[in-house]
Specification:
By secondary structure, this protein is mostly helical. 78% of the residues lie in helices and 0% in strands.
Amino acid sequence: MGILIGGVGGALLLGLFAILTKASGLHGLGNFAYLITVGITVLAIGLVGALTQGSLSEQFTLKGMGVGVLAAASWAVAMLLITIALTRFATPVSVLTPIFNTNTLVAVLLGLWVFAEYKQVQMAPLLLGASLITVGGILVSRA
């Protein structure tokens, strides 16, 4: 069920997200205004979710929040760079999205190293899939 919810659902929504990101720029939303708009929306959804899950104090830890801030900062800067590429340089979303989605390779490598996930996965299919993602990124970048 996790693959369906986080994998398929996440992929569909992030694909839509890329299209809506470009559309917001085409409709005049500035890069930093975009980040503020997205941040307010994320905050609202987070608050509603947290409030429906019981005690808020049980959901927050200082270390967890510190890592969360780092995650948010890396995502925000990535989104800023993507919006700049889409709006200032008019990079086609159909070319840019597959390239920035090679972030999968970064996550795979870091997951194998940081969380020792190499103990849990079959390396041959993982390496084959990573190779296909790399080839796909190269092909798309030349489109």
